[in-house]
Amino acid sequence: MLNRLLSHDLPRSRWLALGLVVVLLGLAGAPFLFEGSRALNVAAKVCVFIVLVASYDLLLGYTGIVSFAHTMFFGIGAYGVAIASTRLGEGLGAVTIGTLVALALSLVLALVIGLFSLRVRAIFYAMITLAVAAAFQTLASQLSELTGGEDGLTFRNPEWLSPSFEPFEQPFLGVTVDGKLICYYLLFGLSVALFLALLRIVNSPFGRVLQAIRENDFRAEAIGFRTVAYRTLSNVLAAGFATLAGAMLALWLRYTGPDTTLSFEIMLDVLLIVVIGGMGTLYGAVVGAAIFLLAQGYLQELLKLAHDALAALPSMPALATELVSPDRWLLWLGIGFVLCVYHFPSGIVGRLRAARR
Asked: Which fold has domain 2-356?
């Protein structure tokens, strides 16, 4: 049963399987295991980024396409929900309409970009997608009447997803059941379902062709596969999943702006997570997203604890305490990324699977 659910793509490593189970159980029980809204926000963001990174891995890891427009589709999904909710009012109908319109727009844009750009190779296609993404971000910032401009859009979720909605008077296992909790488990369920759908795609005959194109597109074309068509379809599918991830983030934040969905920093984060987790594995999206977002959320606190501990020691050099200052968290995050790439050139998942073999 589990083998079929995972599309016959088992972890093939005990340590990897253990890590995936830990992430799954941690996300499933986050509201009950960890106190405070911060932990729940990190868990929700992990759910969203698992879908976003896995959809990008479909492009980069399985098809060999380097695209910088992935966050554009991510932003389209978020703006679709936000615009529909502000114009049509709160309710499930507005969210559904916004998601469907955003999904249709993303699929059309991905198809156009794929048909006109995927005939060029490597860096040229990457530059085209970068230009398109930058143009779309500028457009979203300037159309203030529609998108809210630089300030973005704040909207209200359907009543049953709002924090004020409390269907039960008594807490469950010490946790108040409200709309925020329901929204989190909606995101969790969607992330699991979308990840399993992506796993089915990459392990289908279509996914095998994509991997053949990645390895040698000339040979794949020589034996009869229309590589441009397959690349375009891969681009369209990845865009669709990224759009759904953007809609999920908008539902959780109840806000959408250029900095939360369209910034180039998010694209860099996605690239880092793919490299850390392992390209062409999909499981790398789960492991990489969990590690990266936990580091983003809690590295400053860990450094603060280390800084206070070193400062309390007598005759401790000032340089040592300064290096572990919470303000240096980006430095340590960069060092961790360099060490990860050096020791895990094929990503964490790739290294664990290689060790198993």
From this structure: ABC transporter involved in vitamin B12 uptake, BtuC (1.10.3470)
